[in-house]
Sequence to fold (497 residues):
Amino acid sequence: MSVITKKAGNKRFIDEVSAIPGGEGVKLCIQCGSCTASCPNANEMDYPPRQLIAMVRAGIRDEALSSNSMWYCASCYLCTVRCPRGIKPTELMHALEYLAIRHGVATKRTLTPIMYRAFVDSVKSNGRVHEFSFTLRYYLRAIRFYLPTRTNPLKPLRAFKLLGMLPLAVGLFSHGRMSLRPSRIKGRKELKAIIEKAQAIGDAL
Amino acid sequence: MRYYTYFPGCSSSDGGAKAYGSSAQAVAKALDVELDELEDWNCCGSTPYTAVDELTSICVSARNLALAEKRGLDLVTPCSACYVILSRTNSSLKEYPELRDRVDEALRAGGLEYHRTIKVRHLLDVLANDIGYEEIASRVKRSLSGLKVAPYYGCQVVRPGPGFDHPESPQSLDRLVESLGAEATPFPLKARCCGGSLIISEEDLALGLIHKLLDSASSNGAECIVTVCPLCQTNLDVYQRRVNKKFKTNFDLPVLFFTQLMGVAFGIDSRALGVEKCIVSAEKVLTRYVER
Fold:
């Protein structure tokens, strides 16, 4: 890990994170580690929450944003209720996810960013999430991560795991828990106008 | 009669948890509660959307609150994930004035405005605190006496709060279960995480969390689990076989929505409650209480 302070434009990383609602708490951290101790998924993270916060403060931007850490946050909010400084590490994780996507550096070592995008696309087209087409879209996009590579020609073998999903899908269908047709809202035009406006405002920030 | 505006959320309306929506309505009717569905509601805003585009997700979320303002009643949702996101939209709009201006501008593009007057509630809060345990107990037609139930809260119904129950050691669902005559078993992990939507992208990770929950419920003698969240129900029920395969266990724990359990105790027809939609059959534990 390099310790060179990296900046986006002329903004310091800590200011970039603090500017996002929920990200400002990063300045209050006393590095006690309550967040890491509370996190059910800290073991899977490149940098557990306490360390990730330290990295934001130290300006170690690229490593933090391209890490898998925030993508393993399940939003259980245990860290948030335990933090003695009132920081909201859960929100901070979302802020880092947002920055990673915005700057195109989200890691490819977990499929969570792809899953989240498939979810959002479903909301955009229907106004609601349609579970069947959302999961289908996700698996279709995930397939390219199972193509053979020069370093790992046997990668497609891992895709066999996905076949284990078939009995689950069949079970959901046979129990009347999967609708094939999406339920769509009437105000899709209005929702689209809201979304486009919000994106335009966000892009200008 | 009590009146609320109702936000089912995608999963409980037409998704994997539609039994939650139907049982919630059936139980509400029995308790003289009117859950009037918010007209043309959209996705709550969702945690995935927050990660992909924070500002837009808040605007999407706020459209619901703006629509609810036309009637002005509390907005009640049975989904913990919708509850946490819609509440968060309210608190963010309160806390960040510059965000408020941006959201107002975006809503105007859709012909709406939101004056931040809507209170967001979880269905468990409404039933436990507005209706109350005594009232619930008085509607019980078939006491669930002898049934051992693990009350599973999960995360977002009590966290981050401040909400209507303790964030780590909540009691409301325990008391509700007991008001039906059933026994709420000790469940040390009752407010711990099931992995949420990470079950899709990081299955092994989530299966580990689900395994711990099933183990905690089962080793304390529970015959079934009740949940207050569509995601929790899906993870514990639909993925229970996957847990058994991965950890070489043989859990056979039905996972019901708390409204389904209430409905059974109220003597409501189990088909109206969607009990048959559970992947791990609940029939064997409920057969004592369900009239054939």
Chain B touches chain A through 72 residues (CB under 8 Å). The mean pLDDT of chain B is 97. The longest strand of chain B covers residues 2-6.
